[in-house]
UniProtKB/TrEMBL annotation:
It comes from Neurospora crassa (strain ATCC 24698 / 74-OR23-1A / CBS 708.71 / DSM 1257 / FGSC 987). This is Carbonic anhydrase. GO terms for biological process: carbon utilization; cellular response to carbon dioxide; cellular response to oxidative stress. It comes from the Eukaryota. Its EC number is 4.2.1.1. Zn(2+) binds at C45, D47, H101, C104. Keywords: Lyase, Metal-binding, Zinc. Its cofactor is Zn(2+). One of its GO terms (cellular component) is cytoplasm. Signal peptide: none annotated. It is an enzyme of class 4 (lyase). Belongs to the beta-class carbonic anhydrase family. InterPro entries: Carbonic_anhydrase (IPR001765), Carbonic_anhydrase_CS (IPR015892), Carbonic_anhydrase_sf (IPR036874).
Length: 230
């Protein structure tokens, strides 16, 4: 199919989808046009194989979304920070989800010593740092696909630590029990699994901050977790 045909096919598919949704539920689009109140902020990779609303089995209006190359969370990225601030402070989402995935091109590039070129080399620097910080573990993995999968998971863990130190997120955890989750999408089977990082996993040597809905526990490594108020 040519590029022109692909575009027109997409428009035709949209027309068919809109007609089906309107027939199925006449109030679907009018209600959608009235505003949004998503409960999830999804931060994922721009990879075309990871469409969050589809793989979550959800509908338009359910998920507020930010995607970039290799789902990198950088504290100096004003784009990501603006999305987080709006979703958490204004939309009052209940969950922030950072999702990595298998067969990630950015992860593969970070494992290579070759330059990608252009701005991409700069963008992938945080992922390169993950590689160097876990060099011994990654070099011990002989299977290339498994190595790419592992650095992608480690990238999510690193991103969660950045999210947990975001001021807007920290305030929302303390004040209303916002939950932060690190997950991984396996393209080969279509399933998402939790990686065991985020608000549900407290570390040792903790500092506790109590809020109305629970208590925020900051570990020595900068990670935090939410627990029930005592």
């Amino acid at each position: 199919m040519s590029a022109d045909n692909t575009f027109h096919y997409a428009l035709s598919s949209n027309n068919a989808w809109a007609g089906y949704k309107a027939h199925q539920n006449p109030q679907f689009f009018p209600k959608l046009a009235g505003g949004q109140s998503p409960e999830i902020l999804w931060i994922g990779c721009s990879d075309s194989r990871c469409p969050e609303t589809t793989i979550l089995g959800m509908q338009p209006g359910d998920v507020f979304v930010h995607r970039n190359i290799a789902n990198i969370i950088s504290p100096t990225d004003i784009n990501t920070t603006a999305v987080i601030e709006y979703a958490v402070a204004n939309l009052k989402v209940k969950h922030v989800v950072l999702c990595g995935h298998s067969a990630c091109g950015g992860a593969a590039a970070a494992l290579s010593d070759a330059r990608v070129g252009g701005v991409l080399d700069t963008w992938l620097l945080p992922l390169k740092t993950v590689r160097f910080n876990h060099a011994e573990e990654l070099e011990a993995i002989t299977d290339e696909k498994e190595r790419i999968m592992r650095i992608a998971q480690l990238n999510v863990e690193a991103g969660i630590k950045v999210l947990m130190n975001n001021a807007t997120i920290r305030e929302a955890i303390a004040e209303r029990g916002l939950e932060v989750h690190g997950v991984f999408f396996d393209i080969s089977c279509g399933r998402i699994k939790e990686l065991g990082c985020g608000t549900a996993h407290a570390g040792k040597g903790d500092h506790v901050v109590r809020g109305k809905h629970g208590q925020l526990v900051f570990g020595q490594d900068g990670e935090a977790a939410i627990a029930a108020a005592q």
